[in-house]
Amino acid sequence: LATGPRQINSIFYEIRTYDIKPSKMKEFVEMVNKYFHLRTAHSELVGFWSAELGAMNKVVHVWKYDNFAHRTAVRHALANDKDWQGKFISPALPLIEKQHNEVAYLVPWCQLGKPPKEGGVYEWVTFQMKPGGPALWGEAFQAAINAHINTGYTKLIGVFHTEYGLLNTVHVIWWNESPDHRAAGRHSAHEDARVVAAVRDSVRFLESQQNVLLIPLQCSPLK
């Protein structure tokens, strides 16, 4: 989690979270599935999910950019894309209650992964760490993540550290075959002395944690 490798690599990820009006969720998802190819023509979509457990009427999507100039060019092109603006943006905006975005980097010791097969579920875990940055809590956090990976019950997709938005926030994406498979794996992991020790060391730096179970949308590259 050292800052050096992040600054050398200009690639970053924009995490966009939308709260959808409860009565409009079905309509919003249908619009995404129908028209989102207009958006992905401009830049790379990593994943697009809807919340199933831990949040309601919420969608999360992640975009990859080469650098900030790349994002600026993409946003300019989208603003001038009449099809995108007319077919999706104009009718979709009334369905959205709130929008939030963050800029994050993959931590240096993690590469973006893919699930071994389609059809599973994703767990999005947000950790709010104590102020001080990765120099304070990075080593312990990495050890806790590796302890869970080593149990073999879950697949790590990515670990992101915020650069814009609420700082000292870490988002971790896991993939599991099913919610029941995830539950059984976690119960076993929490009886593993190595996991217990690593987590106990890491939580010294933890302020809060939120877990959300996500279902990929039809347009999501990560399914």
UniProtKB/TrEMBL annotation:
Q: Which residues form a coiled coil?
A: none
One matching Pfam family is NIPSNAP
Q: Which domain of life is it from?
A: Eukaryota
Print the organism lineage.
Answer: Eukaryota, Metazoa, Chordata, Craniata, Vertebrata
What family is this protein classified in? Belongs to the NipSnap family.
What GO biological process term is on the record, naming one? mitophagy
GO cellular component terms?
mitochondrion
- The protein's name is NPS3A protein
Q: Where is the NIPSNAP domain?
A: 13-111, 122-221
